Amino acid sequence: MLEEAKAGFRKAYGYEPTGVWSAPGRANLIGEHTDYNNGFVFPFGIDRRTYVAIAIRQDKVARVASTISEEVFQWEISDAKPTALDWALYPLGVAWAMREAATTGFDAFFVSDVPVGAGLSSSAAIECSVGFALNELWSAGLSRQQIALLGQKAENEVVGAPTGIMDQTASMLAEADAAVLIDCKTLETELVPLGLSNKGLVVAVMDTRVSHRHSDGGYRSRREACEKGASVMNVSSLRELSESDLVAAEKLLNDVTFRRCRHVITENTRVLAAVEALKSGNMERLGELLLASHASMRDDFEISIPELDTAVEVAMSVGAIGSRMTGGGFGGAAIAIIEQSKLEALATACKKEFAAKGYTEPNIFAVKPSQGARKDS
Ligand code: GLA
Fold first, then answer.
1. What angle do CA 364, 372, 43 make, to 5 degrees?
2. Per-10-residue mean pLDDT for the chain, 377 residues long?
3. What is the CATH number of domain 2-192?
4. Measuring from each residue's beta carbon to the nearest atom of ligand 1, which residues come in under 6 Å?
5. What are the TM regions of this chain, as residue ranges (predicted)?
6. CA of 327 to the centre of ligand 1 (A)
7. For 195-367, which CATH superfamily applies?
8. Of 47, 56, 84, 279, which has the fewest CB atoms closer than 10 Å, so is most exposed?
């Protein structure tokens, strides 16, 4: 893919790129819709990445192209946000967010094997690859966490998706064989070794291929319900509440808002418990927590879909340790922690059950916890 990025650059722009940078998509082990509530999340970088071949220009023009289409999108770096440029809003949005550091324009060509719309953060992979590259090319001196925040800013203010900080932080700070515990209130992070392969385990992704977008209504309305709950409970965010507050919350909130808040509050507890379970090697407990997380997303937060529930059920029926949908929901993928030797059986069973229910054929593959943003050449 490194060579593909360089070749694509040459073809699009007719000269050699300065270098190639890359950043991974992410899978979230546990902690969903907790990030924008200042809570805890526990994602890891996956071995599917976005590569960007890039060179600086003498003017302030930014051009971006990719293997998606022949089209080259162009925008001049300024205070005026780029608009209506399709996928190019992600990288150009990052350039906009970083505009104070922009000493030059640039040409960029993207190649990616992070599936789009699968809940594996193809968008964060684009944002972080180009943010990391520009930071170096412009000698901006930003930390990895600052680049993550600017990626989120691009997504919130240019793309218009009201997302949290999990995906970009994971893509910037991930390491091989580890997951990143992120405290989204303080932005403190802790790398926790996963050691799955030593135990003969893998994380399987079951991509339902039902596509989702977070600029649509579902994600936003969940976020609004959480904000409403926090305001009625008179706290700055749901992070400030614990399970002991649920009795009072149930009296003050309407049923839907209460269930939305209950998901977030209990999910925060589950994230910390999952980290403990991993540290003590208690995989059975980890599995229970993943399943409880899925049930909470399905019943309280109501962001699962029948395809995701089916994927989780099939995974458990073939002997997974635990399974849950991952990412924002309303489509995308579920993950399962499962013995490597059962991966094929999982794929077969999943495809069979999806066919029987008349769903689109799912895409099943293992992901390896991998390194965050890096310079490749
Ligand atoms: C999307 C968002 C994240 C997070 C998850 C849900 O991936 O980009 O910020 O809110 O959904 O956990």
1. 55
2. 97 98 98 98 98 98 95 97 94 98 98 93 97 98 98 97 96 98 98 96 97 77 97 98 98 98 98 98 98 98 97 98 96 97 98 98 98 98
3. 3.30.230.10
4. 32-33, 35-36, 163-164, 166-167, 214, 327-328
5. none
6. 6
7. GHMP kinase, C-terminal domain (3.30.70.890)
8. 84
